[in-house]
Fold each of these.
Amino acid sequence: TLGQIRWRMGDYLGAQKLFQEAVDLARNLYGQNHSDLCAALNNLGGCLILNGDNERAVIILQEALTDYQNIYGETHPGVGRGHVNLANALQAAGRRDEAFAHYEQGLAVQLNTVGPVHLYYAKTLAGLGLCRVNKASDGAEVANGIEELRLALDLALDATDSDHPTVAEISLKLARGLIVADELEEAEIRA
């Protein structure tokens, strides 16, 4: 779509406008609880995060998740993605406890649908690990989050080549976690 082209070009405000038009059109054509509306809401929510409108992204992505659940039940891959997208928005909004719960739910759905050696699963596990590190109140929780990040990177490398963008994204999340853990030498290597 034109919105996705704008997104890939880095024009997030232009993409946001087009994704909002797609949401409005899907809502007018189908009403609630339609997969096309869910896709449009997810695109809009992702753009809102990139544009810093995190609380609005939470509202939009919660609507998409609810619609996915109403359409497919709890075990569909779209529901798993919906949990992860909402978790990303909640994390960006600083609502880490809520984000953590949605990462866990998304991970559970993905484990049962795509399995652990899949980029979606690895990426979600990395989101969960970084969220755990960022919300940790003690060193043990930070260590657990770092282990999740390391496992996510290993799973991604098992699923694809080392030069894949998702591997780089997970490696950067691991570096961010290592900075929190004050493991700066390894963080520099991972970054």
Amino acid sequence: KPTKLPDIQHRFTDRHLGKSLAAREQFDLIPEAERSHTPESKLTAARLFYLEGRLDAALSELAALLHSEPDHAAALLLQGKILLSQSDLMPAITALTRSLQRDPTSMGGHYLLGQAYARAGDERNASKHLAEHEKLRSTRVLINRLEIEAACKPHDGAIRRRLVELYNSIGLFQQAQFWTNAAALNPSPRQP
């Protein structure tokens, strides 16, 4: 939870990143001395620069962030995305691979890495990561549908057990544990 005004402003800016002008206005309200005091504020700045098309500035922010936190998954993902857009394929592959080592459930990470491998001519790795992207995407679509169904049927333990299976299948173990606990609270009979 943010406790200082700059932290709150960074989070508000991050929420407006889809609208780069509104995000820039919010970001510019943050005093200069407070703009780069956390890794997340550096990531917010890099995302904003990316949306504005200022790729060198985004890469500079990311380099500073990764200097202090070399395994920051979101920073590595954005760095890889930018490098891929600049056709700097091997550094993009390195950044995206490192990002996926930290967050193997990233749909965007697998998609971008698959694209990078395809552009580099490595069809085997491209196919592997694009297939993983599709598995994660289709599983998450099913999860979203089942979570809505679970909300409508609060005493249906079977839905909750299926959610446990799905979350475990894509490596989201914390979410699987949540649904394990929910299923234990509402144990409907198992079907044969």
Amino acid sequence: DDLVELEAYDRALTNPLVLTGYTNHCPTQQSNGDETTRYPVGQVNTDRIFALVRPWWRGEPLHALLLRPGRIPGDRAARIVAGVGRALRRAMKETDLSPAVAVANLYVCEDGPVVLDAAAEGPWLTASDARPLLAPFFDEQADDEAAARRFLHLLYLRFTTGTLRPGEAQLAALREAGMLTDGEAALVARLR
């Protein structure tokens, strides 16, 4: 028995044009072993409810991970940032999503890859904290590749230091406490 998650919308409370576009944009399919994208496996579409049924993978959306205060150990941060980079390159190559929209649809698996949710650009993006939370990571004027590179740099900075703009005193305190290795500190210094 595989677990699933249900993302449901009350039609009375959701813009019908958004739901129509979302329904057409998100066909369901079996993953066929594709471990880079989390596809919906079904839809529930009634007069009152629209819902996507997705396989449940242990993990969380990237923006939820960023909402958690504090830092992430350097080795895990490096794995996540590398996985985000791979997923972001794939999303930019295979979809028409901009990096700022694609990262709002990244899902960090607890024991595996960072994957793209195939249910991209859903109604939740206008109502959630994802876009405002991710906005400081992006330069609206940069081309997609430069924006993606900047995002990855800032993501590593945020994960290893706990903030996007660490000061010298904060970095020194992290190093002194043994929470930031010399290698991480050197990389953080280059990214600032």
Amino acid sequence: ETVVMATLEGLGAAAAGESLGPRLLALADDPFQPVAAAAQAVLRRQMPTDPWERRAAALRAEHPYGRERIVEELAADPDPRAVAILEQACGNRDAQVRATALRALAGRAADAARRLLPAALADPNPWAAFHAAVLAPRLATPELVPALESAAARPLGTAAQAYLAEALAAAAGRPVPAERPAVRPLVHPDGR
């Protein structure tokens, strides 16, 4: 611990803008508070001064709780720069941030969300890919059919398959079923 903390104090002298990478980010979340505090101090010194650049940097460096809050703030911010940062957040290292940012982007700038939907549907994290599938029906266009078909071939679960089937129908101009089928029937089919 002493060695890590001394190293972090030395890194604190690093010039603003230098990237110290994922290890520093991991140390910022260390359960041993003195190590976490030292890493956070280094990160704070590296933060940009421009408020928009700070928000983008915070999405890369903040604790997951803070990243979620930042995405929510950006979703509510009418400034077009917020959309650009949400687009960047769709590539965040945290799957929850990627999914939340895409949902926020779909509500703010559907065309931007459509451009990012194929990558989100192919996300290596099944949770993030599932949440992209949830958005797919409302974003579906004929141009997205290959990405939707590719996602439908992935083992994302019954619910994701249902969303993707709706998206494929919408993209092809076919009517989407008025009633969604049960994906996990918890009630016996005859109503018992």
